[in-house]
Design goal:
Number of helices: 11
Helix content: 25-40%
Strand order of the largest sheet: 8-10-7-11-9-12
Bound molecules: adenosine-5'-diphosphate, magnesium ion
């Protein structure tokens, strides 16, 4: 099997055909036509076996997740996804594996009408890198540096489910696979919050996607915006599955677990009602968890107003021995 046969069999024929793709897979490069009124938003993320996923990962879930984490970054910028590139290094050609991987990938691509327009394929240790490209109206992208004192802090969805699933897999805190069955997909097949990001881009003063845990990622917003934040522990949204385990695990997975792929946005007070109404009308979950304050500290307060010290701060590469 040659590289070209792999490309032809699994990637060149695909479900999404956009009119703005002038030239897709098959030439030296792709050619796309962005509308003149739009800005182009570009992001990339690599997933490496043994670092980001287990070697025995379900290939369909991997295909989904590799694209989902990139679409999550586009969502955090307020961009609608348009195109993507796929770089694959494979230790061997396993047709069943490739078939399932491509299926998971193409299924999510179809959901968001994002077209695969090229990539690279090589032998090597198993790794998947995707570059995703999206479109946002001129000047409307959401950045990390726009939060201002007085803005309200919101998160989409629920936090901590992916970390809870990972905890069950590691047998931590006596949490079992059965306990977390209802939220298993949160780790394996995260949903990028595209509707949320696109909907909130006209209202939010800043945004970030929560990939390394709320504390770490909200921390990036505070640093970039040169502000502090006060977060109410009791307001952190968690799933019913998470709540049922809370006596054992506490809230640290929700605060610092990672792999949530929810959005954290700040909204000026004047736009808070509009943001909350938009979420209601669009049918997505948006929970107010605190506010931006002057300074540079992240204060987490429990229900008695006492400062809460989480035991973990979030995932960072290279810092763990
Ligand atoms: P070149 O040698 O000109 O860089 P390649 O041989 O790497 O081109 O790829 C041939 C064509 O197949 C290109 O259009 C490239 O974008 C596409 N391609 C290669 N690998 C992938 C992949 N994993 N997914 C999608 N398209 C791919
Ligand atoms: Mg070439």
């Amino acid at each position: 099997v040659t590289e070209f046969e792999i490309i032809r069999a699994y990637f060149a024929t695909q479900p999404v055909q956009r009119a703005d793709v002038r030239l897709g897979i098959g030439d030296d490069a792709a050619v796309v036509q962005a509308p003149p009124s739009m800005e182009t938003v570009i992001t990339t993320d690599v997933l490496v076996a043994g670092v980001h996923f287990f070697d025995d990962v379900d290939p369909a879930a991997l295909g989904h997740k590799a694209l989902a984490v990139n679409l999550s970054d586009l969502a955090a910028m307020g961009a609608a996804p348009a195109w993507f590139l796929l770089d694959l290094t494979l230790p061997k050609v396993d047709k069943a594996w490739l078939e399932a991987f491509a299926h998971g990938l193409h299924e999510l691509a179809l959901t968001y009408q994002v077209q695969l327009i090229g990539g690279d394929t090589s032998s090597g240790p198993l790794a998947v890198a995707i570059t995703a490209i999206g479109l946002v109206p001129q000047g409307k992208s959401m950045r990390r540096d726009g939060a201002r004192p007085g803005d309200l802090i919101y998160v989409t969805g629920t936090l901590g489910d992916a970390a809870l699933v990972l905890a069950a897999r590691r047998g931590e805190y006596g949490v079992t696979a059965g306990d977390v069955a209802a939220v298993r997909q949160r780790l394996e097949r995260p949903d990028p919050r595209i509707a949320e990001g696109v909907g909130l881009r006209d209202l939010a003063s800043s945004a970030i996607d929560i990939s390394d845990g709320l504390i770490a990622d909200l921390g990036h917003v505070l640093e970039a915006s040169k502000v502090g934040a006060r977060v109410n522990l009791g307001a952190i949204p968690v799933s019913a599955t998470y709540r049922a385990q809370m006596r054992k695990i506490g809230l640290d997975y929700a605060l610092a677990g990672g792999d949530d792929y929810e959005l954290c946005v700040t909204v000026p007070r004047a736009d808070a009602i509009r943001a909350e109404s938009l979420a209601l009308a669009s049918g997505f979950s948006l929970t107010r968890i605190g506010e931006i304050i002057i300074g540079n500290t992240l204060e987490i307060l429990d229900s008695m107003g006492r400062p809460y010290q989480p035991k973990r701060k979030g995932y960072e590469h290279f810092t763990r021995g």
